[in-house]
Amino acid sequence: MQLIRVPSLAAILVVLAAPAQAVPTGSAFTYQGRLADGGNPANAPYDLRFTLFDAAAGGASVGAPVTLDDVAVAQGLFTVTLDFGAGAFRGDARFLEVAARPGASTGAFTTIGGRQELRPSPNALWSAAAADVPWTGVSGKPAGFADNVDNDSGGTVTTVATGAGLTGGPITGSGTVSVASGGIVSGMVASGAIGLGQINTAEVQARISGTCPLGAYLRGINPDGSVVCEGLPDPHAVTTLYGPTTFVSAFLGMATAPDGRPVISFYSDVNGGRLLFAKCANPACTTASAWQVLDDAGPNSVGSYSAIAIGSDGFPVVSYSDDTLGTLKVAKCMDASCASGTILTTVDDHPVNSVGTFPSIAIGTDGFPVISYRDETAGGLKVAKCVNVNCTGLNVITTVDNPPNSVGWDTWIAIGTDGLPVIRYRDGTANTVKVAKCASAGCNTGATITTVATDVGTGPGRLAVPADGRPVISYETLAAPKRIRVVKCGNAACSSGNVDHEVHPLGLGGVSSIAIGGDGLPVVSYGAPGLGITKCGDAACSSGNALSILDKPIVSTNVGVGNAVARGADGLPIVVYTDFYSVKVAKCGNASCN
Fold this sequence. Notes:
By secondary structure, the protein is mainly β. It has 2 helices and 41 strands.
């Protein structure tokens, strides 16, 4: 059996597939061929099977095979209509394979010859499919037609004109429309279209929002329009608590008790030198409820150096020096006012050395006191860790720093946010301020020691730890006129990233003290001559500082020589200080003490 194909298949297909009217042609096309059986033209019905492939050999079939039963063949000629579906012809090469068997037969089909390439007429059917999905299968499509969808709206735009406020038109081909210089006027902007979210507050001041409460004044306006308020100046209250007498020491201690009333320790040379205690009658400390003599060890002189803290039981505990014996002592009050007695303990009585000067006390996370102080004889920094709230047990004594230099001057200790002590002290030989960050609660397992300031004067300074855990440290400069500066540590150990700023440029020096105010920012007191205070404007005291003089000398030139600042119960600063023969308290009426 042999199939003889029409030589001019393409021409036949074009003619037979062309539509007579402007109607869709569909996907069917006419195929005409010649079949020979045994070398003679076939004259009988035959079953024919047509299979479409995408390659001349091998490849894959396209669509389902078309099988036609009992096709009439006369003189070897036959004509059939084939339809492989709408997706069969998309412009790619296609090859037709024909198989036959005698009509009314169920036997196997015999493939006749090789595959015949169909071109080009059946592929013209693809143009009809492209009418439905016009960009499918097309290469080199213009931008915007990647999804095979022609979104042309069918409009008839031939020119683009530019209206009010614009320039660049009319455009008939290509061009750029832009906003003309001065072209946008207020009438073109819709009401509410421009608000705070559309302006640059670094260049344009936002509308003022908010007001200051009663009793405050407008201090400034933030870029976003919010207001900065400050309490109306409320004159600070200055009270003389003790004196006049012959002499009081510059080393004062002050802390705020749980009931909001400050407690104060100080030295008076009455009766040869004794340690006194005052419990303020109110949070402003305008009077003292009771004076107590904590230690009158006559004929010994005691308490010329003292510091005070509130124990874990809420009762005051005072560290101080026995100046005659050269020992470190602790007085633990038995009630909030020290009225019912105290427990006096010698914490460090070195057999040879004189110890206990410049003591500072803090309460550890275990509720037991920890004290930093100077070994006068060895010229070193020491720490005593109490083993109970009264410091009456076998306390742990550690030398933290004892170089060839004379160190341990003006110590001040605080508990960091990590629960470990951090100590500020002065190297008197090198004229530097150093910080020791303890590795344990008693500082008996080593410490990280860092020099944080140079060219430091002899005026004692203090240390405080804010909520960020990075200490702030006050000190006096060495060169005249004396200045007060603050170091803001870069980390909890002050070992890197420290910054140093001046907080008072007017030549006031002497003792300085530092605390953290109710707003979380440092406040620094200093004196001689006159008691001054600086409310820092940021955490590093680098800008926005507010400077005030709380007490000016009238007769004595030693006002503020000794001072200690603390945060009052209302979050506002309170300062205890000396006026040579007297002990005074200044309670600020606002955060800036102005």
